[in-house]
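Ticket #4471: structure output looks truncated?

Reporter: J.K.
Steps to reproduce: submitted the chain below (169 residues) through the standard prediction queue, then opened the result file.
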Amino acid sequence: MIDGKIQFVKPRAEDGARIWELIRDTGVLDLNSTYCYLILCKYFPDSCVVARCGGEIAGFVSAFRLPQYPETIFVWQVVVAEKQRGKGLGTAMLKEILKRKTCAGVRFLETTVTPSNEPSQSLFRRLARDIGARCEVAECFPADLFPEGRHEAELMYRIGPIRKEKEEI
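Returned output as attached by the reporter:
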């Protein structure tokens, strides 16, 4: 289970470089520029989350509301530090975002996952199960859209409808 010392906080620009390092160290996630993570931390803190354990970043989720579909939040990346994996931290960070004020009115969570990324597939299926929502999978970006044939297709995982605690079921 998750270490009791984990705190969920909104990211700050000062976290951007460490988040970049954490993602780089996984060796499996697409590594974006440090600038990208600085932008996420500075301009999207309400829909992103940092998990801190002591003074260290133990995990990070980047997400944003889709302007053209305000009932949907798109999760871009989920990363968990190696020593924190297998404890449910990824799921806990996603649930943290969903209960924030910025997700009032959110009915769906979308993300893309490659066919070979079984840990992420499990993470999002587990989230759907935990919150009692459907999880539908469809192709989003075929492999041929990526240059030089170096990237797998990205499958869209759509979870929802999401019911909030106050809603009647």
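Triage note (M.O.): checked the attachment and the full token line is present. Residues 74 and 110 are 5 Å apart (CA to CA).
Status: closed, working as intended.
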